[in-house]
Amino acid sequence: MLRANINTGTGMPELPSVILLAHHALKPLAAGAIYWEAEQTLIVADLHLEKGAAYAARGKMLPPYDSRTTLRGLAALIMNLAPSRIVALGDSFHTSEVATRLGMEDRDEIARLQEGREWFWITGNHDPELPLSIGGIVCAALTIAGITLRHEPSPDAATPEIAGHLHPAARIARRGEVVRRKCFATDGSRIVMPAFGAYTGGLNVLDEAFTGLFTRPRLEAWMMGRSTVYPVLARSLLPD
Amino acid sequence: MKQAAKVKRQLEAEGEGRPGPVLVPPLPEPFASWFARRGWSPHAHQLQLLKLAEDRRDTLLIAPTGAGKTLAGFLPSLVDLAARHRTKPARSIHTLYVSPLKALAVDIARNLSDPVAEMKLPITLETRTGDTPPSRRAHQRQLPPDILLTTPEQIALMLSHPDAAHLFGSLRMVVLDELHALASSKRGDLLSLDLARLRTLSPELTAIGLSATVARPSELAAYLVSQQGIETTRFAEVVVASAGAKPDITILDSEAELPWAGHSARYALPEIYQAIKSHRLSLMFVNTRSQAEMLFHALWRMNDDNLPIALHHGSLDVGQRRKVEAAMVAGKLRAVVCTSTLDLGIDWGDVDLVINVGAPKGASRLAQRIGRANHRLDEPSKALLVPANRFEVIECQAALEAAEVGAQDTPPSRPGALDVLAQHVLGMACSGPYSADELFREVTSAAPYQGLTRHVFDKIVQFVATGGYTLASYDRYAKLKPTPDGKLRLSHPRLARQYRLNVGTIVEAPMLKVRLARGRGGELKPKSVLVAGRVLGEVEEWFIEQLVPGDSFIFAGEVLRFEGLREMDAIVTRGNSTEPKIPTYDGGKFPLSTYLASRVRDLLAVEDAWSRLPAQVSDWLRLQAEISVVPEANEMLVETFPRGQRFYLVCYPFEGRLAHQSLGMLLTRRLERAYARPLGFVANEYALAVWGLGDMGAMIENGRLDLAKLFDKDMLGDDLDAWLAESSLMKRSFRVCATISGLIERRHPGQEKTGRQMTVSSDLIYDVLRQHEPDHILLQAAWADAATGMLDVGRLGGFLQRIVGRIRHIRLEHVSPLAVPVMLEIGRESVPGEARESLLRETVEELLAEVMQHAARKH
Questions:
Q1: Given CB atoms, is A55 within the 8 Å cutoff of chain B?
Q2: What residue ranges define each of the domains in chain A, with the CATH number in brackets?
Q3: Three-class SS state of B383
Q4: Between chain B's N and C termini, which has fewer beta carbons within 10 Å?
Q5: Inter-chain touch A61–B769, beta carbons under 8 Å
Q6: Are residues B181 and B252 in the same domain?
Q7: Highest mean pLDDT among A27-36, B385-394, B749-758
Q8: Residue B199: which pLDDT band, with cuts at 50, 70 and 90?
Q9: ipTM
Q10: Which residues of B fall within a CB distance of 8 Å from A176?
Q11: How far apart are CA B787 and CA B800, in angstroms?
Q12: CA–CA separation, B217 vs B117, rounded Å?
């Protein structure tokens, strides 16, 4: 759990940098992904690739550059961390239909990223089916070292889990300034990850949708900063 | 700019606003006897307008309040309709009356129905606004009234239906009321495009514009007629009603000490209260809603006589506003504290005094407000100006002198906005297929779009169809598709429904209802016992976002305690705290007009003129002349001095807060590059203060800092671009453009709950678009808006041009008297509540002590 280590040298408390889930150290990254170093696994949730195209189909012509922006962000992480395994926690595509129409350039980029590493696509409610052409392994859930990775968090889960789906965000106010950021929500037995996609927003962790997922006093929102993730305790969180 | 100059020359050549010897026939029956029965005789301008409209000439009527402007506008329609032989009910609208305010349309309909009934004219008239129920609207399309009174948005909606041709096919008159308030805005752009379409549907129509006195009638005159090509501009006829009696304006010469800064005018409250007591009905205008709330509250605290004093501003609940308006008309009130919501032409009751708190910011605005008092042209209107601080005294004096010579200032016109054009391009497709060539011709016949190139027009059509991106991946989803005969048609009827939900150009900041809970205190829990009660009004979401439950604020004239949010409602209880946190709404902050600013500079520059100012103010200026200098009318004074651990540079452009803030952003960038180590800046309406670690005074003297270079016009190039790209201002501006152009959905009440998670926020779109296609047409539109509206770049450019070779630097040991007001702005924003007040008090005393010390040492 959260405990600020007092660095006696400077007197400045050092921020904790990993979330402990069943004794596994999981590092939340400011880019919105989790790096599980012991497993050399990079986890991302809710990429919502081709969300722009899905909107265009309904008459909202958003800039068609969201997929490449998202993939660029992912590529930068992969380049830095060189993980041997990547898990996308579902809703990787905004719809199963647009997944089949992914542009050549973006398709090649995914293939390039997949080279030399394991790649798991967990299915989500937005993308229950995925075309073979995107490579990797498609599955409904995955368990690694006792931790279950799935799209929708399951309140009855017997084992610790990492999930996405809800796009958590948190809001705090200090001296009249309001900060609202995407966040990793956890109570030590579950992590709900922020959405990674370029066109994805966030839902306040205090929203009803999160009811039953966390033991409230132990809830922490690890809010995404520019280059650091800031753990914030439940009592400081504000509703929207 | 160049075009405006050309227009002006042309008008002068033609003889601007000739009241000329037009042969005016008398009023026909039954109008003549109706006028006679009331003991009225028609004004010359009413008859002139009637004659011109009969000759089917588009006409602009410029008349002061109380000159029977509205009746003049309707006479041609009434006369035409009365003479018409009526065999079967009309299937088409005869006259369209357009007003910027819903309330005004309703008010006018009420006033107009009297003469129609009294003369037993066979004329039907109805209103249509956002409040008109759908069944009524559908009925109006089936069986249209002769005269329809409505708003620009409703016209756009009606024009997007396939039956528009039928509905407007025999339209004869369009009356645009309060045209000065509509033109030169995005709403005005939309209306100009709709007017162009109405002309296509009914080439017979005549446009009549009604306007208060404006600086450049030529721009409105061009707006009213169909333009053909960019070589020449065509103008409507202009009829100018004779001005009424000169207003009787005084500036409050207070016994109390004049504040150095701030906008509260609290010091003058006892004198304001006395003025209210000695008049029948006073209208008290203030510049912001928070000021209105604060002063209303304070007046009631001293209201020993229990005078009926009411409050009226734009974020109050409609029901509450109507109640106040009705009480005014019924003569039940003694004073109303209000903002610009009462600026426009609604006539309320028998006002005999207008009190203007704060500086009027523009000569035309002052004239409009004073026009509220005493609606008979032959009697002077009476007004009391209450400046809130010393600079405002000077500004009030300048405005008063402008009013004496009847001078006007109105913001200059700018080219029509592209996001509005995009909305229109889709709207027209909703009514039926069109040829791009014909639509281009129609669009450019509207004065704001007269200079639009075909290239940009085509880009906008592309934008509407597929988003207009370089990466053309949305062709399969195109909203506009070519037909075999070379036209463009809507690809799906669903798009028309989407369009109708998003029509209009007013993108409000999201608003929350302020709802009074029954029961007292206690934090709002998810299923709390507090019962939500009546709605007090609406407030911007960002304001509520800063509050935590338990905070108090003034709203609707009461101190309220914020309890929490429930869906789109901010739940409040009646607070018992006496020191509330006051809403600091953005709305209603007007920049000082360029014209008035130059009068202020002139007034400062001539020492003889100071005698016209209160002694406190002239003493202050004399002290300034002694310690530093008072700038000449055409020069800009720059003062530098050390204070505490910092070095200050204060300049006095007198160009308004917006332009000063932009200047501050750009100057600090440049000072940074010159190693002056700037730390921050603060701006008010008159001056800009920058502070830093480097001794800027010394740097200027030893040539390491070149003032001419520092204030060079080239700062509006790369520096501006670089700053804008990263500022939140661009994001706000982009959100507005994205909404108006239809790229993102408007937020509708009830959708917000899931909104955050499901809709794509415009900030995300902005980031992605800027990264991949920085030249996209929508980014260009957003940039243009930010540059004009929020940054006043045009004005800044004019200023930088004006001061070339005219910068005067004075290096001082201490702060100067003229710098005190802007120095007091420092730190205002970050320290809340009572702490801020005491901080201010301390600072004033400190600064004044320094000034006096310095003056004493000099002697």
A1: yes
A2: 23-145+157-235 (3.60.21)
A3: strand
A4: C
A5: no
A6: no
A7: A27-36
A8: very high
A9: 0.86
A10: 546, 832
A11: 15
A12: 35
